[in-house]
């Protein structure tokens, strides 16, 4: 998956006049492509949001589909079903090693740790997702160096991030911009929803917490929350062959 599109906030707000009017009521942002729906992640980070008593509706968190939004081009995938990653066979079916926590960085090393996690997160991953609401399931993740990401699941009834879509769209972007004293990074991830003729971002923001790359560089753990406090959706991933 590669998109020649920047990852600036301008892209995320680049909607047509009709889309802006239509989404005003539900707080969303639009991209004119196509199709699916859910989301995921967590940790013991004291800065993680507290957990509301029950999860929001997966589709309802962005309200009903805007009826007046501009229609996009042809669907990217037939009937809204994302094809499997062609590299899925290169992923170990089980974690190749125990998670080896990296050493705690000194204050002077925090900037280098953030850079190392950013660069180390780029690549192809497979692993497990746990949420407070449903049984665990397995996912594929691809983080691109240009700030985009793609997801798939082994269960067609699920979506990697629990919310949103596993279809590909330039709206799906990730960024890491902070690191805490223990050396865990945090940032944001844009969760796109599918409305068959276009994609839209919800009013809430996706948050990444406790992003930790283990000492081997081949295990990755992080937690996903919505900015409205739902989560954690927790990921434990291991690296696939290039």
The gist of it:
The chain is mainly beta.
Commentary on this structure:
This protein has 242 residues and is mainly beta. It contains 3 helices and 11 strands. It has helices spanning 9-12, 17-23, 110-121; strands at residues 29-31, 123-130, 137-143, 149-153, 174-179, 185-189, 193-194, 199-201, 206-213, 219-226, 233-239. The strands form 2 sheets. Strands 4-3-2-11-10-9-6-5 form an 8-stranded antiparallel β-sheet, with helices on one face. It has a 3-stranded antiparallel β-sheet with strand order 1-8-7, covered by helices on one side. Strand 3 and strand 4 form a beta hairpin. It is globular and about 50 Å long. The chain starts with 8 loop residues before the first helix and ends with a strand.
Shape descriptor? globular
Which regions have little confidence, pLDDT < 50, spanning 5+ residues? Answer: 1-27, 32-54, 58-79
The count of helical stretches stands at 3
Distance from first to last alpha carbon: 13 Å
What portion of the residues fall into strands of 2 or more residues?
A: 25-35%
Counted beta strands: 11
Query: Mean pLDDT, as a whole number?
Result: 77
Spatial extent as radius of gyration: 17 Å
Strand order of the largest sheet: 4-3-2-11-10-9-6-5
Structural class comes to mainly beta
Query: What percentage of residues falls in helices of 4 or more residues?
Result: under 10%
- Note the run of SSEs as H and E: HHEHEEEEEEEEEE
Summarize the main sheet. Answer: 8 strands, antiparallel
